[in-house]
Design a protein that fits this description.
18% of the residues lie in helices and 28% in strands. By secondary structure, the chain is α/β, with parallel strands linked by helices. 42% of the residues are buried. This is Zn-dependent hydrolase, glyoxylase.
Length: 227
């Protein structure tokens, strides 16, 4: 299994489909399992941290017209500019993101506590020179999108966890930033989202992150060792 691929001909896989949006993984065989999302508000489609893939435009058109492309993590520029250009829309960044706009070959707009006038709320997750991340919460569908701090791929999770904190954040999980949410679903930047008992999965991930970190680090080390 490759860690990451940029093969644009790979057929994407839809990993969540609900009334109000969907998620996809453009390259299902890659170990990183980069996931992307679309939230729909009044037939306007907001594309979040997208990785392009075959058939994506058709999937988006089934839900409405693309209104904008959102980057929720400074490292998740991915294919945002290309998709925004193709749909003649802007890339939207949090108003406090620094150093990202200059790397995007597309028009850029900014948002604060709310994404445009969608009702989708934003929440600062991490704000530092090394890591800039914002979560998005759609109260209409009770959907929380967390681009990086939590995920469902194997290298985020210990045994028994459905949702895990990023290995680099295990000792300092964003409890205060995310504990106020009790979502129906949690969509993440790496792996398929959580769509059942999502609030419990999020709480378990945040409260047990530090305690379970030695187990996770040991599993990552074992996976990295040669057979």
């Amino acid at each position: 299994m490759t860690i990451r691929t940029d093969d644009a001909t790979t057929e994407l896989q839809v990993v969540a489909d609900f009334d109000g949006g969907f998620s996809w993984i453009a390259h299902p065989d890659e170990r990183m399992q980069r996931a992307s999302h679309a939230l729909v508000v009044d037939d306007a489609v907001w594309v979040i941290d997208p990785v392009d893939g075959e058939g994506l435009d058709e999937l988006l058109a089934e839900r409405g017209s693309v209104a904008g492309v959102v980057v929720g993590l400074d490292r998740h520029k991915r294919d945002a500019a290309a998709i925004a250009t193709r749909h003649d829309v802007a890339v939207w960044l949090p108003d406090w993101f620094d150093g990202v706009e200059s790397e995007l070959d597309a028009p850029v707009r900014r948002f604060g506590a709310e994404l445009a006038d969608t009702g989708i709320r934003s929440q600062v997750v991490t704000r530092s020179r090394f890591w800039q991340e914002v979560a998005l919460f759609d109260p209409a569908t009770e959907t929380l999108v967390v681009p990086e701090s939590v995920g469902t791929v194997s290298y985020f999770r210990t045994d028994g966890e459905r949702l895990g904190v990023h290995p680099a954040r295990r000792l300092w999980p964003p409890r205060k930033r995310l504990s106020g949410f009790d979502p129906q679903r949690v969509l993440v930047g790496h792996g398929a989202g959580i769509e059942t008992d999502a609030g419990d999965a999020l709480e378990t991930a945040l409260t047990g992150s530090r305690r379970r970190s030695p187990t996770l680090y040991a599993s990552i080390l074992r996976a990295a060792l040669p057979l």
